[in-house]
Design goal:
The protein is of the alpha+beta class and 385 residues long. It contains 15 helices and eight strands. β6 (120-124) and β7 form a beta hairpin.
Amino acid sequence: MDAMAGRKPAVVWALNISVVLLVALWLFPTLGLLISSFRTGDQITASGWWSALFPAEQTMQIRVADPDDNRVDLGNGRFMVEGNIFDGAGFAGELNAWGTSSRRLGEFEPGVAADLGDGETLTLQADGAYIWEGNDDQISGRAQRVFLDVVTPPDFTLENYNFVLFDENNSEGMAKAFFNTLTVVIPATIIPILIAAFAAYALAWMDFPGRAILIAIIVGLLVVPLQLALIPLLSLHNAIGIGKGYLGVWLAHTGFGLPLAIYLLRNYMVGLPRDIIENAKVDGATDFQIFTKIILPLSFPALASFAIFQFLWTWNDLLVALVFLIDASGQTTVMTKQIVELLGTRGGDWEILATSAFVSIAVPLAVFFAMQKYLVRGLLAGSVK
């Protein structure tokens, strides 16, 4: 007994550490996505989300003002262009060093008059103010290009959310995709629960020939990859006239979710007190009355647990939606497909992608946190007698 007691704290510590690691693996990417959704594209490129609260160093390539429009004649064949190199760049920060070639980044310090050859000079201050001097040939044509090593302060913006949710060029597609996703998810979550609840009650408390075989088939279906059934099921839908549409994707999600739902609910219902059901039958209650007035209320944790799984799976699904729902018209595009399209047109705008991704996970997060207290109770259903 002492040896077992001595091992128990180690097991508890291992369990606690494992839980902390699992929470961290889930929390850190989500937190990073949230922080990145409030940052600009330049900041995301320059530094990771974990350094968002600290100044970040980055390299910028900018040209000074057009010399043909801004040059001043100094006499003796000398001309000058004066201004601030950050004007119009939307930049707020401080210059550390600069250079005129990508091979010599940080060649000059702020305030130093850089000799560009043949009497041409460029002086660049830390705040971006510059003076460019040279002869007529030098201070004309295309403006001088410089590479800046700058330090940018922490900056957070709501422009990303404004673009995703309210910009006319994008918000209409995202809003439509949001409601399309709800149209898929809500029925695809409710329908399997209704069917599975009846089936689970029958397999748990009703005696009929072949019940054990049905249970074995359901357990076997849990390990069958859904990818094996996509093409045959789509062919069946086309043959019976369903084709691509909401009905087809509802039936597909229902079929793919039923094995887990029936298995989970049946295990929970088997563990309910037999005396309650037998007393109800003695009092003259029918199986339907027992199911609706006793079994369903007592099985709410298991129902809520499966509802969480089904909702999250259907909300984040792309493969089933591509096969059974989305057509060439794009009128039934869901959130996951809309984000993929945004990635195709804005592959470098990481801030827009991060914002769109976080918008898409906001609803699943709300559902999970609202019902997570039932999750563990439902998952442990039938594991202990």
